[in-house]
Amino acid sequence: MPATTLETGQTAAQASLIRWLTDNVPNPITVPILATPVAYEVQANRPLQVTDFDSKQVVSVNDIGLVQPAADDLFDTLTYAPGDPEPAKRGRFASTVLEIIIWGHQRTPEDDAQARILFIRDAIKANYLLAGQLKEDGVTYWAPPIQILDYTQGGTPATANLIHRDRSGLWMTENWLPNDEHPEIRAWRMLLRIHWPEFWAS
User: What pTM value is reported for the model?
Assistant: First the structure.
């Protein structure tokens, strides 16, 4: 039977990272120098309207892609051959670049939107850098590994595959995004390269 879906495909990798961020990065973030805890929402695409973040910060995770060869090389392809009755699987090592943007609204000239955004950035980076790293006891993690969930199955069970950070280009770039049309909007952009084992499901 031909492969019909990607068990750990690019869409599943992006969605799994969003789920991991939602489940493992503190929200709201309590910082003593800020008047109130910083709450935010994680979503798959850039906000469509300014009103989307009038009362909260938004973290958008967008897959902007990466040029890569097809998996037709001996060193690119992966084969998983479990015991019966589970069928064998075929795949490859894959990678992409994700754009993570933290959005905030400068409600008044005295507001601290930039501070709220930067504290969210620090929390995301700290937990992401610690993902899958064991503590000294060799049992518990500083932050859980980023497991890829199988969105081809009901209940989206976790697979045995993980998202791995690219050490050579961990944070490819970071910068504020200007918005001439809406100068009250603050947005901090990070480009992040990830890679993972990508298997076809049949």
Answer: 0.85
Domain tally, the chain: 1
Residue ranges making up the domain that contains 196: 5-201
DSSP state of 87: P
pLDDT 10s digits, 41-93: 999 988 877 777 777 899 999 998 876 555 445 446 666 666 666 667 777 88
Type of residue at 12: A
β-strands 57-63, 40-43: how paired? Answer: parallel
User: Under a CB-based contact definition with an 8 Å cutoff, are residues 119 and 188 in contact?
Assistant: no
Gap between the Cα atoms of 22 and 56, Å rounded: 15
